[in-house]
Protein 1
Amino acid sequence: MAISQTPSRITVQPIVPAADSDVDFGATISNADIENLTDADFDVIREALFKHQVLVIKNQGHASPKAQFEITQKFDPDSGENYGHGKTLDAKRSILHPDLKTIPHQPQVQVIGNGFVEEYEGLKNIQLRHPHHRTFHATTIPDEDDLDFTRFYRWHIDAALYGLAPPVATTLLAVRVPGGRKQTLRYDDGTDEEMTVPLGTTAFVSGYAMYDNLSPEDQEFVRTTKVEYAPHPYVWMSSAKSRSTGLGMVSEGKEVPLDDLPPIDEEKIQILPMCWRNPVTDRLALQVHPSAVRKLHLADGTVVEDLAEVRETVHRLQRPGISPKNVYAHDWEQGDFVIFHNRGVIHSVVGAFAEDEVRLFRQCNIAAARLPQGPVEVAAAV
C-alpha cells in the first residue's frame, strides 16, 4: 500500500436505511483505492470509521493481502503484527479452528467462505466451511427448510479475550460471492421476529444504540460493571450450545472444565468494562461478547459467579439491540471491502449455503496495543 502526500478525493456517504429501520450507522466510501492510499485518504477513512462504525468500499477486488493488512494495522499503529486471535486458531478444540485458513505469505489475513477452492494466494485444494448454526445452536432449523431459512450464527466481537487485546478494526474483502438469493432469518426465541436477508450476509448492530436505548438504571449498571471472560474462551465454550438467536449460550453445564483447558495464565484472563468508549466521539458502546462471558464484577465489589445468572443479565441487556429494526445486513457484492469498528459494533455470520455455492472472503484484524477504554467515571476509579 503506497503512501503519498496528495490531497484526498475520498467522499463519505452515510447509508440510508429502509423506512422501517432504526439503523443509524454505516457509510459508503467513494474514490478510494485500498492499494494506493495517501495519508490524507487514510485520515478521512479513520475519522469516518469512528463516526459511522461500518464502512463499505466498492470495487476493491484488486487489493492485495499486504494492502489489507497495512490498512487494518494503521487504525492501531502501535499494535504490532499479531492476528487478533494469536495462536488460538491452532487449538484443535477451538470453535474457530475449522472456519479459517491462514494466507501463508500474510499470516494476519485469513481466508473464509464456503466450498472447494483449487488455489488462492498460496493455499491449494482448500475446503472452506461457512459456519452453520446446526453445529453451534442448541436447537436447529429442520433440514428441509435449511436453504430457505437461516439464523444469526454467533453475535460476537473479533477478539481472543485472553491475553491479546481486542482489535480496533476488522477488514473483510469479498473475493467471490455466490448468486443473490434471499433467505428468511428466524429468531426462534418465542418473539416471532424474523427478517429477510441476502444470502451469506454479515449482520451488524451498534453497541452505541444498545447503550443509548437502555433505561437510566441499566445505563448506570453497565457503566459501572465489568465482565470477566473465560480463559481460552473458544475452547471453554466448545462443548456448550448457543441460543437460537446466536446471542450467548444456553446454560446446561456443558462448558469444558477449567482443569481440562490448556494451561491457564491468570494474568491473561481479561476483565473488561461492559461499556467501551469511542476514542474520537467519547460515546459509550455496550460492548460484550455474550458467548464468552463468565463472571460480572459489580460496582460494590460483588462478583457474580453464577454462570446462568451472568448470561441472563447480559442477554437481557443486549437482546433488544439485535431486533430486526436495529440490524444492518450487508448485501455483499464481489469486490466489496468492508471495514468495521470492532470496538463499537458486534456482528454475526449468517446464512446456509448449498455445497456448490462457493464463497471466498479475506478477513484481517490485529490484536490491539491496548485494552479498550471504559467510561471515564470507571477509569478514574481504578
Protein 2
Amino acid sequence: MPAFTMRLCGLLLTLSVVLAYERDICDICEEDQTSVISKNHEIHINSSLPEIQCLIYNVNLLSCSWSTDSLADDAQYSASFQFCSATEDHPLNCTSESSQKLVECQGQVKIIDEMDEIDVAVNFNISINGYLYNICHFYNLANIEKLDAPQNITTVIKSTNLEIQWLPPRSCCIHKQQCLIYELKINNETVEDTLKGMLAYNKTNFEPTRCYTIQIRVKQSNACALTQHWSDWSKAVVVRQSRNIYHLNASVIASIAFVLPMILLAILLVCKFQRLFEKLFPSIPNPSKNVQMLLEKNEFNQVTPPKQIEGAEEGAEILEVIG
C-alpha cells in the first residue's frame, strides 16, 4: 500500500511538472522571451534571427512567414502552436521558397465556442549547423486576424439616392458588430464618413446617367484589437443604371417621333374629310321659322272684309291690294 501511494504521488508530481512546463511556454512567450539558441547545453540570445509575422486568414487559417536572407541555405524549419488553455501541440506545415527567400508555415486553427481564451503560443524551430534555434511567440488571435472582405454587396436606387448594403465578414474571434470599421470606395474615391458598426450607406445626389463602381473593406477597431489589419477590397460591384435609362429614353423618343405625327395626320384627315363631305352632300335649306309659323296659322286662308273708307261713296268698289 505505501508503494502504491508513492507511485501515485510520483505520477501526480510528474503530471503537475509537465502541465507547469506547458503553461510556462505561454508565460515565457508573453514575457517576450522569443528566441533561444542551444548547443552543448549553452543558451544565449541571437539577434540575427528573422522577424516572424503571423496572421489569421479565412477565419481559421494560421499563417506565419519570415525571410531567409540572413539564414543559411541548408537550414531546417519546423513550427507548431498550442492554445494557452490546453496542452495539445498542433504542428504547422512549413514550406520554403528559395527563389523568394521566404519560409511560410500554415495550419488550421479549430476554435471551440466554449473557449474562454483565444491566446496561442507558436513555437518555431530552426536548425543551422548543429544549432537549434527555438523561437516562441505569444498571440491573441483577435490581434492577428485579417478579416475577409464584406460579402453580398447590394444596391437599391431610391429616387436620387443610392443605398448600398452589405453583410459582415466571418471572423474567428470578433462577434460584435461595433468592433468592425468599414471603408467604402466609390469610383476609386474613398468615402470620408466613418462607417463603424454599419451595414448600409446612403449616397445622396445619385446620378442615374453615370456608372458607379463600389468596393468595401473592413478592419477591427482599436477597442477590440491592439493591431488592425485591413482586409482585401471586395469584388467590384458595378451599378449600370445609366445604360438602362439610356435605352428607355431612346425607346420613348422613338415612339413619340413615330406615333405623334400619325396622330396629327389622322386628326387632319378627319377635318379635311368633314369639309369634303359638306361639299359633296350639301344640306337642304329649311324654311325660316317665321314663314313656317305663318303657314301654320288659319288666318292666312280667311278672307278679310274690306274696310269702309270715309268719304267714299256707297256702292263704290274699293280694291285692296295686299302686298
